[in-house]
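Problem: given the chain below (620 residues), write out its structure.
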Amino acid sequence: MAEMSQQPKTGAGGLEPLPVQRLPLELLRSDAARVEGSKSPLPSLRSARLTARQRLSRDLEDLRPKLESAKARAEELAQVASAKRSELATLAKRRTEAAEQLGSLSRRQLSEIRQLCRSPPDSVKRTLAAVWLFLNASRFQGKSPASFFDDRKDWSKCQRMLADDAFIGRILNYDTAILTSVPHVMSHVAGTYLGISADRRPSDSSDSSCTRPDATSQEPETSDGAAFGGRMASRATLRRTLTKELQIREMMASKGVPLPPLDLPTVARASEPCGRLLLWMTRVLEEVGLRAQLEAELQACESELDLVERQRASFEMEVACAERAMAPPLPKVEAPKEERRSPRKPLREVVLNPLPISAMAPLPLPAKPTPKAEAKVPIELDVTGQLASVHSQLAKLKMTFPKGVHEISACGTELECLDRMCDMLREHRDGRLKLSIEGHSQANESDGLDLQRARGAMQELKDNGISAGLLRVVGRGCESNDGAGTRMVVAKPLHELVPLYGPIAPEAAAARAPVGLYFEAQLSKPGKEAALILEAMAEWLKSDKTFSEVVIEGHCDRLEPQAPQLSLSRANAVRDVLTQLGVASSKLRVQGFGSEHPLSLANRACNRRAEVHLRGKRAG
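Solution.
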């Protein structure tokens, strides 16, 4: 029995059963926990997605008001910038209209005002004095207002100003940059004569501009030209007006009271042309006084508008990204059942029928793009100052001086000579005629008197609207000793080698400058356009047998630093190029004039230039 109990049990068929393994309770519990843990990531992922959507929703709620605020601010700034531009355009338009009214004056009207200047009313006299200060403002650089204009001493200057045939032309071509360089003159004219503030906006003033409140209520005007519709006042009216104004002026001067500002209706009643002059001065002061302020405000507005536009673009991108993230996912597009069931074709069943290599045609290579040749601009050179008519006219214009005197007399023939020189320079509007003002003195006169006489004549020409770039001054001393005739100033044409046609730098072309040797700002190396012109000049100089000396002048803009050194560097650079191209260095000479001879006060690109002057003309 013991042996039978020890034998293993056999199942059906005589096979032994598998042993049963008993698992501990701790192992079962750990397996259950592991199963439960495998179910936990699903709820946590769902809650994380809900939290992210809530966060995006909150971000959208914050971004949308910011985006709307940025859009509203951008629209507001755009309107402000448009208003500033419109105000600048209005200033220029009003000044242009006032200048056009002056340009429409007839010869009879100008002759009437010239006759009126013999015994003018006080309003007319003060108006013309203010105009003279406008046109000659550059003279008072660094001077006090007390020395600007003396009614008794300087009235003859106003009479000469009106006698000049180019008087209206000077007003029509007036450069407002002159007033910007002498702000104390502008403030003096605005306060003393016109009684206005230089920074007053056009919308703050009535159409009459210069009228006092009481005058405005008595005689309202509908437009700027309404005051100029009638004829000039009668002599009796002018006599009564003159007597009354003199009495008022003497009474105010005795009490130390400043004179009242000029009144447009009063001036227009006394003299229609003077009323137009007063209106033009008012418009110029408005434009000059407000232009810098408006341009600064416009620049600040455009800068802020650019910043707001960038912020708006950033907000729009963030809103678009948040809306895209919150959008429901696109439904999955399944392929049709037929496509899914069709078995994929084995690769070994694809039959290829390749051609032999000999039968294959080579692929054509892409043609290389041929560079387009730039059209060569023809260059034509000429020498200025060679007209016989110019030489004959200048030979008759000699200004003589008393011994030891260099000032130009107000009643002599010097002014007639200067006026004729101005007319000759204005006839050559392209600036191709340039004059050398030569001063002479006697041996027994003080040194430097010849140069003082030449500079005085040059200053008078500049005051009459002639650009300093068209003039040069030379002191000849006592080279020609023929008695009193050596105490004189004469003008001679300069011989300059200039291109009539040829390439021109874009900045100079935008300024409508003539073709020439121009430089970029603060650079002394000639540009590619100037290099082409120098090649043509070198060929001309190598073949020339007329002139023995070539003077290369360098010029700068008034805003360029170290102008004397930079102008000399530009002249040296031109000389080096000509020498490399085969021109003999022995006949080349350089001069640097800094910014002393600008061609234009408004277009500074015209002043960054070099000029090639020819001297020493050989006989025959």
